[in-house]
Automatic annotation (TrEMBL):
Keywords: S-adenosyl-L-methionine, Transferase, tRNA processing. It holds the Pfam family DTW. Residues 1-187 form the DTW domain. Signal peptide: none annotated. InterPro entries: DTW, DTWD2/TAPT. This is tRNA-uridine aminocarboxypropyltransferase. SMART domains: DTW. It comes from Vibrio hangzhouensis. Transmembrane segments: none annotated.
Length: 193
């Protein structure tokens, strides 16, 4: 009888040994919508397994996350969210040399917009956006809007724009492999290579 991996939760296609260790000093919080925590298709959980300074925190509408407000960390918090008020990562870094604490909304795009609109504490944070021209490889959910990246792809692009090209490529290579394993796992069989 096949055992389910206690770390990744897969039965036929364990991906634990494929997870790269990413040597990035990126300081990151995935502010996760409560609905996202139980979804098998969540990709934020993968980021927390490969980036040493990444943490998953459940979003609370009225209660700011102390880690995200700057009260409990050394680095200025900045929300990664494309908007009229956001600046590019390059512009942000030019204006704020040194490390920053990046906050990524880990949710569907519709949920992420609601999270921002419903939380004045999130609205008060400076906002940045990534400059990605790549198409998303993520096809695990229906009703996806064209041009949007999933949480994992956003974080990989952030790593790239912060100057870690090789690490970003390693992340995306793993992600392509993970997507194949996920599809095979969902079908109930081992991936044949």
């Amino acid at each position: 009888m096949t055992q389910t991996c206690t770390h990744c939760g897969f039965t036929h296609n364990c991906y634990c040994e494929a997870i790269p260790t990413i040597a990035s000093d990126l300081y990151l919080t995935l502010l996760t919508h409560p609905n996202e925590l139980g979804r098998a298709t969540n990709t934020g959980k993968l980021i927390a397994k490969m980036l040493a300074q990444a943490e998953i925190t459940e979003w609370q509408r009225k209660q700011p996350c102390p880690r995200c407000t700057g009260e409990s960390n050394l680095y200025p918090p900045v929300l990664l969210f494309p908007s009229e008020n956001s600046v590019s990562i390059a512009d942000w870094q030019a204006q704020h040399p040194g490390k920053s604490h990046f906050i990524v909304l880990d949710a569907t795009w519709q949920e992420a917009k609601k999270m921002l609109n419903r939380s004045t504490w999130l609205q008060s944070l400076p906002q940045v956006h990534i400059e990605s021209a790549q198409a998303s490889q993520y096809q695990l959910r229906r009703n996806q809007q064209g041009g949007n990246l999933c949480t994992f792809e956003v974080c990989a692009q952030l790593v790239r724009e912060l100057g870690d090209e090789d690490e970003a490529n390693a992340m995306l290579t793993f992600f392509n492999d993970y997507l194949q394993r996920f599809q095979a796992e969902r079908s109930g069989h081992a991936l044949h290579r």
